[in-house]
Amino acid sequence: MLNNKQITDITKTKKGNNALFCGDEFLFSVDDEVLYKNNISIGSCFTRQELACIYKQSNDSKAVDRCYTYLSARMHGKKELYRKLLRHFDADSARYAVDKMEELGLVDDEKFARAKARYLFETKKESVKGVRAKLVRLGIDKDVVDGVLSNFDIQDQTRQICTLLQGRYSYRLDNPQKVVASLVRKGFAFSDIRKAFEILDIDIQEY
After folding, report:
1. In what order do the strands lie in the sheet with 18-22?
2. Fewer Cβ close by (within 10 Å): the C or N end of the chain?
3. Residue 15 shares a structural domain with residue 84
């Protein structure tokens, strides 16, 4: 009994959680579910091991809540979500929360990669190389990326480049060589770049 800690006070936090105290010592906070699940009330006694277990439950629950917040804003891949959670939680709780999201069907790397690729191709007018690199950086498995990209018509990106030349690069066409260099750095094939310049009747000059 000497190593037990008795809960002497429980107060509500600004975030709606329950702050647990042992005398003047603040232990940690838990949500209502963890509070009731463990029958925590003023006067309850717990061993250090039991408190450690409750603390983990609390962290897992908070990590799950954080996932809902992130996913309510936009879709995430598993690794991207996991990395974000690591800013606030330990690895075990972050992994638990991501697994929970996947179990609920709220996280699906293939669906996420497909939606992200469509956005990058159609809205941002990215190159195939650029899209692939961004998806890999987000933690999507390379096989999943290749499978997703195979569903897009990406053999000829001339139309993408024409859109960029008429929009984002229109004010820079007085120096086509620099525009070509920028497009190459973005991963576009030089053959597609040349074709786009020809379609728009822009002198590409020597490059």
Report:
1. 9-12, 18-22, 25-30
2. N
3. yes
